[in-house]
Amino acid sequence: MATIHPKLSDELSQTVVSSTKSVKIKIKRSNPNVNSEQKFDDFVVPIEKWTTVLDVLLDVKSHLDHSVGVRYSCRQASCGSCGMKINGKPGLACFTKISELDSDTVTVEPMDNYPVVRDLAVNMDRMINNHKKVMPYVIREDSEIDAESGIREFLQSPENVDKYIQFSSCIKCGLCNSACPTMAMDKTFVGPQALAQAYRYIADDRDKGKNKRLKVIDESHGIWRCHFAGSCSQVCPKGVDPAMGIQLLRGYLLGIRD
Amino acid sequence: MMVLRESIIMKIHYGTALGALFLTVIHIMMRLTQDFHESLEYENVIANYESVGYAILLELLLILISVHGFNGLRVILLEMNQGPTYEKLVTIGCLAGMAALIAYGSRTIIMTNMGML
Ligand code: HEM
Ligand code: SF4
Ligand code: FES
To answer: Whose CB has fewer CB within 10 Å in chain B, the N or C terminal residue?
Structure first.
């Protein structure tokens, strides 16, 4: 143990000694670049009350099989990297504790409705492209940098912030799109993530891009292909409620909001 | 193939649903003017068609349900598969089906109303 930093070695031994419980994790493995084989690998890992699914996966990677493919970064539900299917339901691995799953076996699979890159990592291009399509930024002719007055602010009232603040919590994890039944059927559907962001910017009164954005989503594979399943809002870890954003957007297109 | 903006099509879809709901209520209330089994007796059916007001109600119901039903079918088909040729075929097919159903139903309503059946 002489080569390990003393503090790190303390931490490692502590984890093992204080653990009385363990969980069996079944990880779906595949590598479509190599072959079409799909299988589950099982690992048993010690857990604590606070252990998350991501902790378990990283434990597996450190001690049992370093080749498990998983994408993560922040470990605190901020970066949106670690979305996966946990016991059949889309969720963030870093934001799901083993203890809350109430099960001795936890099954993790890649998110539905995205092509798999390897194991639990999926290709998110479709979501990112649709997100870009709805122009997720404030659109207006003038600029905050003004030749005469220097830099100025586009002021905004607290009442206006209230209209969209919930929708600005989106971390682009893509869980909503993976839960959506239309996404599963229609490969050109714009999806709940992008629609919620279209609402977020249209509702912002600094933005002047409403008509441009409505035009993008008002087409045959746009907003109207939502059939109110509501699964997007069920799985969103940030409380965004894309289903409500979609209904509010529909209001603009049906002429009952302006 | 964009014939109309999707929001206009969906306004028609919701409008035809509401209209059909309203006319179906009248249609069912008319059944209450006689015993349930009498509604299907030959003379009563013909008498319904021969009344101009009722024939207009049936014609409107036919148009609303044909437009709504075939647009609904178009929506289902657009979600089942995608691609420019396929989508063009779906639009044309659904418009043709809609027109054919309205034409055939109208033929029945008009001929019966004029005593040709
Ligand atoms: C008069 C009562 C009716 C009402 C209130 C009604 C209402 C609706 C509504 C609101 C939708 C849109 C659902 C969505 O976007 O998810 C819809 C879809 C649809 N309707 Fe109707 N409808 C009625 C009757 C009919 C009839 C009689 C037919 C068949 C001839 C029909 C066929 C369809 C189809 C095929 C769809 C598409 C499926 C879907 O979008 O989920 N409807 N209807
Ligand atoms: S709306 Fe929610 S579930 Fe969807 S991408 Fe944003 S944070 Fe994730
Ligand atoms: S690792 Fe960043 S959201 Fe889970």
So the answer is: C
If asked whether residues A53 and A148 sit together in one domain, one would say no
Complex ipTM: 0.90
Q: Is B7 on the interface with A (CB under 8 A)?
A: yes
Q: What is the pLDDT of residues B41-72, one digit of tens each?
A: 999 999 999 999 999 999 999 999 999 999 99
Other CB atoms within 10 A of residue A18 CB = 9
Please give the model's pTM, rounded to 2 decimal places: 0.90
Of all protein residues, the one whose alpha carbon is nearest to atom 27 of ligand 1 is B65
CATH number, domain of A217, equals 1.10.1060.10
Considering the domain architecture, whether residues A151 and A195 belong to the same structural domain is answered as: yes
Cα A78 to middle of ligand 3, angstroms: 6
Whether residues A193 and A212 share a domain: the answer is yes
The mean predicted confidence, pLDDT, of chain A is 93
CA of B58 to the centre of ligand 3 (A): 59
Judge if the beta carbon of residue A124 lies within 6 A of ligand 2: no
Q: Which CATH number characterizes residue A93's domain?
A: 3.10.20.30
- Domain stop point among A122, A155, A184: A122
* Pair type for strands A89-92 and A121-122: unpaired
Segment A41-56, tens digit of pLDDT: 999 999 999 999 999 9
CA A97 to chain centre: 17
Residue B103's alpha-carbon distances to B13, B16, B63, B109, B110, in angstroms, are 20, 18, 9, 10, 10
